[in-house]
Amino acid sequence: MEVGKANILKFLGNDTQFVLPKYQRRYSWDIEHCEQLWNDLVNIQRSGRASYFIGSIVNKAEGNTPSGVKVQRFTLIDGQQRMATIMLMLIALRNWSLDNPGDTTINAKEIEDLRLKNQYASGSDRYKLLLVGEDKEVLSNLIEGVNNPAAKYSKLRENYEFLEKKICGNELKPAEVYEAIGKLQIVNITLEANDDAQAIFESLNSTGKDLSKSDLIRNFVLMGLDHNEQSDVYDKFWSPMEKLFGNDKQDKLMDDFFRDYLTMKLSRVVREDRVYEEFKRWYMNSDFNGKVDELCKDIKTYATYYTDIIFARSNIPELQKLYAEIKGIRMEVSYPFILKVHEDFRNGLITEDDLLEILRLCVSYVIRRHICGIATNGLNKTFVTLHNEIDESDYMNSLRAKWVTLERSSRFPDDKEFADAFVKKDIFHMDKRRYYILGKLENFGNKQPIIDPSSLTIEHVMPQNETLSPEWQRELGSNWREVQREYLHRIGNLTLTGYNSELGDRPFKEKLTMKDGYIQSGLKLSSFIKEQTHWNEETIKERAKILAEQALKIWEYPSAVAKPVEPTPTSEYSLEDYTFSELTRNLYDKLDRRIMNLSSEVSRRYLQMYIAYRLDTNFAAVVVTKSKLKIYVNMRLNDVKDPKGLCRDSTNRGYWGTGSVEVIFDDPSQLDDVMEIVEQSFNEQSEE
């Protein structure tokens, strides 16, 4: 490795070319980044500084180009954003000079021949910087002065126009801008053949602020390949996969995808801040290790499922409609499970009708739980482990059976619980889901949705005004305040309308008979209302009951299985199956009491080799011996706060239970310290 300090203009002044490998991300600087660079240049000049450090450029020499001119080509591993933006600024300065021939303070030919191009080279060799994909053409067009109105949107062109305006804005004279650029200093790091480019790249980007998780994963996967393999895998799999996510918010969407992809592969929730590290560890221990083309093909397959869901794309109308629902009610926690189900469909394990039923049940599961007010903090773990319970020989029955046997905070609310909660729920304050619920009720029974609820407003039949008119007070009775407070935002009092402002606080009979009132409404949601002569507590309750019956048919409970499925026993073993001594039984009783008191959601299961404690998945396991208890917590050793040094890593030594961090408990005085470790694992699962 060669490391040296360099002036950016001199750095560009040699017969060199910097080429981005195909795995590099596209140019991604926003206007704010360009503005920061511009402000730095202004400050350099106004403060009279002789130099200004802007970071490092990492490259690797690739030998001469095939042309007769000896242009030294370098693969640009890190620094493309800064280099490309400085190129844009130099193009703008050159163009200013060409447009102002009377000003000789800047030499347009010098900029073009020494900073933008290799003067005597030909073809693509003549450009100092070659980007990837569409960015390559955009930058070369800017250098050549070619305006292509049909070209797709590009941040390069947008940022060029911003910098061009800055240069013409007289905050600094163009000559001062060029002088300030000449004061920019870099550290040039040129790698040798045996240098670990990936390790150096990760070190320089260790903060994660510049590169997204998907950028880091792409570089990790493709950087180690030779040039031909890189091009083949990138063109065949990776580039088409990235295009599935579009341009808008691509980095965020791809980061979310890789988290869900890993969560699916590992059958456990991957924390957002660990995606890259978890990916590397999973890959090194997977069947894909050394088979990058197969890995990228797999990623592209699941990315296709994923983007179909988030963009509601399908040539199956019913599936497209379900995708839109899943996206609309924010069911991201279900994505790892749904991805696996789609792969099962592709492999012929389930039919199209089965796939549609599963997605409808996923929607019902989420909506019923939300209506019933069941906490969502463990829902992601329920979905992650749900697929593990499927018996492929009896796929649908085993899945239905699992859903109906879920307990406590994981339960699938049955019809009674759901209907009771539905009539009492404050639907109006459910944000976007309120429109979804009212829209589904309105379109109930239609083969295709007729009404788009987002084009209407929500109408309270009994008005929201705290000071109800005398007519409404008489309508509701002497306890009108209590009736309004209790029933105002419930489903029985809500409908949809295009004339909310006209209806307002009018008396009920006026709302019925006025122009565009309830009687003239063609909406199903108003059909019960228009038949009433009064509106009070009884009519609100009666309408709510009718709508609840419809809701049970819209968001269905899993149907009875075709043949009985025996429920999994809560345990096949008991305490008597373990070999305790008097000491370890005493230790266990104290520990068990403390763990079970952590939460009413904690469950215990006696297994052959250990005792498991779990929320939706195990957070601790206890192995019994005559002399001590071995406790394994489901965390990584580096994440455990262990001031007493009780923990050790059992990853490479073999262990029972869930989790590779081992804690030895052989003295009653250790109980509080041991519980501090166990609680960390419990809390981590509770927060995910």
Number of helices, counting only DSSP H or I runs of 4 residues or more: 27
Tell how many strands the DSSP assignment holds.
14
Beta-strand fraction estimate: 5-15%
Helix/strand/pairing class, anyone?
alpha+beta
- Largest beta sheet: strand ordering: 1-6-3-4-2-5
Enumerate the spans where pLDDT stays under 50 for 5 or more consecutive residues: 562-571
Q: Give the helix proportion (percent range).
A: 40-55%
If you compute it from the alpha carbons, what radius of gyration comes out, rounded to the nearest whole angstrom?
Answer: 33 Å
| Integer average pLDDT | 85
* Sheet having the most strands: 6 strands, mixed
Give the overall shape. Answer: globular
N- to C-terminal distance: 42 Å
How are the SSEs placed, and which strands pair?
Blueprint lengths: L1 E6 H6 L2 E4 L11 H17 L4 E13 L7 E7 L1 H20 L8 H9 L12 E2 L2 H12 L10 H13 L6 H9 L1 E8 L5 H8 L8 H11 L3 H17 L6 H17 L8 H10 L7 H19 L6 H12 L6 H12 L5 H20 L7 H8 L8 H11 L9 H10 L7 H11 L14 E4 L9 H7 L3 H8 L6 E4 L2 H4 L4 H6 L23 H18 L27 H15 L6 E4 L4 E4 L3 E7 L4 E5 L13 E3 L11 E5 L5 H17 L1
Parallel strand pairs: 2-4, 2-5, 3-6
Antiparallel strand pairs: 1-6, 3-4, 7-8, 9-10, 10-11, 11-12, 12-14, 13-14
Helix pairs in contact: 2-6, 2-7, 3-4, 3-6, 3-7, 9-12, 10-13, 11-12, 11-15, 14-16, 15-16, 19-25, 21-22, 26-27
